[in-house]
Amino acid sequence: MSNSDYVSNIKTIPHPQLAVFEKLSDLTNLQAVKDRLSEPGAEERLKEMAREHNQEKLGEQFSQLKDKLDQLEFDRDSLTIGGTPLGNISLRIVERDEPKTIKFEGQGTPIPVTLWIQLLPLDSYTCKMRITLRAELNFFLRQMAGKHLQEGVEKMADILASLPY
Fold first, then answer.
1. Which of 54, 124, 127, 128 is 20 to 30 Å from 20 by CA-CA measure?
2. What class is the 2-161 domain?
3. CA 147 centroid distance within chain
């Protein structure tokens, strides 16, 4: 077994670094996003926004994600996905380095997982973000799941970069 890192492309977020950090470091803030995505017409609004930003793929992914939203639970320090074949899987915040880094560890995951959200200011009103996922995988798992983990990290970065901060 060895550690494999999956790193997102750097995303530019049109909001101050501290505002993004504060939103993402308290996971109860994501409950409001979940609630808004469940409102009538949310899917069409998101698809329109995705088209405006040339992110049609993100709009298409919303339909796939919508079913999973009902199985998400949040508290200040963790995000839990219920109803998986492995039971509940959580990402728990284990370190906050304001306003630069939020570090998560997987709980209930079939393999050891660590995730970092890194934020750097571009100016007073804009920051950039990168997500890194480190998973302990053997050669065969890396070959089978590596592409999917990389795609998942990119999707997560796209979604977080598009949130209203």
1. 54
2. alpha beta
3. 17
- Stated as kind and residue range, the H or E segment containing 87 is strand 87-97
Nearest Cα residue to 28 out of 80, 78, 75: 75
Question: Hey, where are the domains in the chain?
Answer: 2-161
pLDDT tens sequence across 4-57: 999 999 999 999 999 999 999 999 988 777 777 777 777 677 677 667 666 656
| pLDDT of the residue at 50 | 66
Per DSSP, 124 falls in state T
Q: Quick one: residue 108, left, alpha or beta (phi over 0 = left, psi -120 to 50 = alpha)?
A: left
Whether a cis peptide bond, with omega within 30° of 0, leads into 121 is: no
Contacts 24+ apart (CB under 8 A), 97-100: 98/18, 98/21, 98/25, 99/17, 99/18, 99/20, 99/21, 99/22, 100/17, 100/21
